[in-house]
Amino acid sequence: MIITIFGATGKVGKQIVKTFLNEGHTVRAYGRNVFTAAFRENKSLELLPGTLFDEEAVYNAILGSDAVLSVIGGAMDGTDKSRSLGMKNIVQQMQRAGVDRIISVGGLGILDDLTKVNGELMMDSDNFPLHFYNVSKEHFEAYKHLAASNLKWTLLGAPEILYEGPTGIYTTAANHPPETNHYHITSGDIALFMVNELNNNEFVRERVGISN
After folding, report:
1. List of domains in the chain
2. What is the rounded distance in angstroms from the CA atom of residue 204 to the CA atom of residue 208?
3. What is the pLDDT of residues 2-42, one digit of tens each?
4. Cross-strand bridge partners of residue 209
5. Are 3 and 69 in contact (CB under 8 A)?
6. Which of 11, 106, 131, 200 is the one with CA 20 to 30 A from 83?
7. Strand 171-174 and strand 206-211: pairing?
8. pLDDT mean across residues, the chain
9. How far apart are CA 50 and CA 30, in angstroms?
């Protein structure tokens, strides 16, 4: 498959690039700093410089791909709209290019809180860490762009990310945190989840809780 990755130069993004290359896929790594990100040379890796708000560059990065992976980062205080507005543009350009499969990484806050009966989100719970609230709102705005589209999307509600390789041992749940939850996941296992999800399509048009 041809895979376009947005946010490819971050720590999680680099792990995803590495994993998908190891799986034998062709990877298009998109980002502002792709030429200075010290990717290992690989004939199946295409480096595409650009910003998330450049409509033509994003469109060209997506055109002809089989799937899109998004691990957009940014500031945590809510002032950086890269996650929400970047996703808005990605969704628009996917629809324009006729590519309909996307897996994106968000945060734990966008999942349902099972301790509440009125559909409350984790980020609205009384015990949700305040310093994650603003970035969770950004993740939720990104989620709304996905949910309003006709794309086959999967949104991972990731807890604390450990920048380590894959363990292959993790648990998942649709739309809420898994019942066995250690509130962390390795970047390697996020990449492994993406590989498995593209192969199996278990969580199409769903948010996903995950934990090691």
Report:
1. 2-211 (3.40.50.720)
2. 10
3. 999 999 999 999 999 999 999 999 999 999 999 999 999 99
4. 157, 173
5. yes
6. 200
7. antiparallel
8. 95
9. 7
